[in-house]
Each structure stands twice: as C-alpha cells, then as structure tokens.
Amino acid sequence: MAEAALRKELRKKKITGFSVSSAGLAVKTGDVLNPNSAQALAEAGIPVNKTFKPRQLTDKMLRDAYVVITMTEAQTQRLNYKNVTSFYAIAGKEIPDPYGQNIDVYRTTLRSIREVIPLIIKTWCMN
Fold first, then answer.
1. Among 1, 29, 68, 77, fewest CB within 10 Å belongs to which?
2. Structural domain that includes position 29
3. How do the residues of the chain divide into helix, strand and coil, expressed in percent and rounded to 5?
4. Cβ of 118: how many Cβ atoms within 10 Å?
5. How many structural domains is the chain composed of?
C-alpha cells in the first residue's frame, strides 16, 4: 500500500527521477497482493499494478536504495543499514502491519501511510 500511495502522490505532484518499490521482511514464495490491501487502495482511488507480487527484501536492494523506509523502529534496527529509517523517525508514529486483520484495519493503515507521505516527499524528494 505504501508503494502505491507514494507513487500516486509523486505523479500528482509531477515529481520525477525517483523509483519506488516495496519489499517485505517475511515474504513467502507465491504470495500475492492481499485482497484487503487491493480493496483499501481501490476505495482510495490509488491504482495498483495488476502484476504486483510481494517480494523479499535483499541485501542488494538495501545497498542500492537511496533510502529505505520501514514501518516500525524494530524493522529499522533489524536491518541496521545507514540508509534505513522508519515512519516513526519521520513522523513520530509507527505503522503496524495489518496482515491478517479485517478491511477496516487496512483502511486505517493506508490512511496512516498517506498522512506521512508529504513528509517523505519533503524530506527526500524536494531537496
């Protein structure tokens, strides 16, 4: 959801030169976009790449990224790379993983993500 929401906001603001991708810390082979994620994004008018498939975060991705933004401080500490920060470090709040929860939790999670996106853009895309 964070990838799709950030992409949409960058397009809306006509900010170019950045690629956005997401990766998980515990992705299973064959995972697909969670239906609740797809529904929350659709309700918010955020397009989703129809071929999106969750992928596992790799050391190469970490090394190659300009910045990696985790949902929680624990994830940031687990990754322990210089270019890794968290939603908490940016906005003072963590974004809990909604996995396994009902659609309302996914909607709340997406709202929380979208609230932080302006700070992400201001910090990393407007310099």
1. 29
2. 2-125
3. 50, 5, 45
4. 13
5. 1
